[in-house]
Amino acid sequence: MLKALIYKDKSLRVLDQRVLPHRESWVCCRDATDVAEMIREMAVRGAPAIGIAAAYGYLLAARQRAEAGGTVTVQQLEGAYEELAAARPTAVNLIWALNRMVRCLESLSAQAPAAQRVGLLEAEAESIYQEDLVANLAMSQVGASLIAPGNWVLTHCNTGALATGGQGTALGVVRDAWEAGRIEGAFVDETRPWLQGARLTAWELQQESIPYHLICDSAAASVLASGKVGWVIVGADRVAANGDVANKIGTYSLAVLARHHGVKFMVVAPLATLDRDCRDGSQIEIEQRPAEEVRSLAGQPVAPTGAPVHNPSFDVTPAGLVDALVTEAGVVRHPDGEGIQRLLS
Ligand code: MRU
C-alpha cells in the first residue's frame, strides 16, 4: 500500500505532497524542526498523517537529546512540543498525538534511563501509526456498508493513503465500496486552492483503477442535481462535541448542496479527530493560508499582483447537515452532543 511516511535509520522520510503527482520526492527529517517545517509547508498533510508525523518529530527530539548524552524529560522536550503543536492549528490529531507522547514519557519512573525513554517513545509513535491503519480499515468497511448500490459518490480534498496511516478515511470508504460493487465510481472535487483532489485523490484512484471524474469545485451543484450521486463522503480535521465538523474549505458548501438535493452526507474520521473539549464549531481555530495560494496556480500568477485575498483553509459544517459520522467505534446517525457522547463512552 502507498505510504506517505516512513520511519527508518533514525529519521522520518516524508513523501513530498507539494510536488505530487508529477514528481515522487522524499524529504528526510532528522529533528523536530524539520518535521514541523514539513507539516507547516504541507509536504505532509491530512489530519491523521499530521498527527503521526508530529509523534515522530517528538521522538526525534528525544533521540537527539539522548544521543548527545542528555536526559529526556517532558520539560526538556517542551520546546519541540510547542514547535510541532504550532505547525498547523485546525487538525486536532496533531495535539492529540503529541499529548499521547507526553503521557507515555510521564508513565516512566524518574530513574528510567534516556535509552529506555527513547525506546518507549518509538513504540508509542509506531502504535499511533498502526492504530490509524487499523481504524482506517474498520471505518472503510462500516462506511461502505451504508451505501446502497448503484450510484456514484462525490468526495472532496484528499483523505486517502497520503493523508493517513492506512488506506484513508473517506477515500478508504470509496475503496471498499468500489471493491464491494456498491458504487459506480467517484466524482472528485479539484479542491482549490491547493488542489488536493486534482493532484492527490485523482492520483490515488488512478493507481487503484477506481473509476473517477475530476470536476471543478463549482461543478458539484450540477453533479448533485443530476441524480447520479448517492452520498457525499468527506473526512474531518476536527469534530466538536456537538458534532460540528471542521474540514477542507468547500466542505460546508457541499453539505448544503447535498441537503438541498436529497443526497446523503457522510463524515469519516477516527476517534482521534473528535475533540470533546471543543463545545461547538465556533471554537475551532480556522487556519488562514498564504495569499499566493489563491493568486497563483502551479506557480503561475492568475490574479493581479497584490490582489487582496481571503484564504481560510477549512470551514465548519453544522452537525445538522451530517447524516452519518463514521468512526472505528461505530456510526453516529445525525450526530449531536448526545450521540457523540454515547460514542465516546
Ligand atoms: O490542508 P489539508 O490538506 O491538510 O486538509 C486535509 C483535509 O481537510 C482532510 O479532509 C482531513 O484532514 C481528513 S484526512 C483523512
Helices and strands, with pairings:
Layout: E1 5-8, E2 11-15, E3 26-29, H1 32-40, H2 47-67, H3 78-85, H4 93-106, H5 114-145, E4 151-155, H6 170-179, E5 183-189, H7 196-207, E6 212-215, H8 220-225, E7 229-234, E8 238-240, E9 245-248, H9 251-261, E10 264-268, E11 274-275, H10 292-295, E12 296-297, E13 300-301, E14 314-317, E15 324-327, E16 330-333, H11 337-344
Parallel strand pairs: 4-5, 4-7, 5-6, 7-10, 8-11, 10-15
Antiparallel strand pairs: 1-2, 2-3, 8-9, 9-14, 12-13, 15-16
Helix pairs in contact: 1-2, 1-3, 2-3, 2-4, 2-5, 4-5, 5-6
The protein binds 5-S-methyl-1-O-phosphono-5-thio-D-ribulose.
Provide keyphrases for this structure.
345 residues; 2 domains; Four Helix Bundle (Hemerythrin (Met), subunit A); alpha/beta; 4-stranded mixed sheet; binds 5-S-methyl-1-O-phosphono-5-thio-D-ribulose; 16 strands; 7-stranded mixed sheet; Rossmann fold
Can you describe what's shown?
The structure is a single chain. By secondary structure, the chain is of the alpha/beta class. It has two domains: 5-136, translation initiation factor eif-2b, domain 1 (Four Helix Bundle (Hemerythrin (Met), subunit A), Up-down Bundle), CATH 1.20.120.420; 140-344, Rossmann fold, CATH 3.40.50. 39% of the residues lie in helices and 19% in strands. The protein has eleven helices and 16 strands. The strands form four sheets. Strands 6-5-4-7-10-15-16 form a seven-stranded mixed β-sheet, with helices on both faces. Strands 11-8-9-14 form a four-stranded mixed β-sheet, with helices on one face. α7 links the parallel β5 (183-189) and β6. α1 packs antiparallel against α2 and α1 (32-40) packs parallel to α3 (78-85). The mean pLDDT is 97. The structure holds 5-S-methyl-1-O-phosphono-5-thio-D-ribulose. 5-S-methyl-1-O-phosphono-5-thio-D-ribulose is lined by residues 45-48, 91, 157, 159, 163-164, 169, 196, 235-237, 247-248, 313.
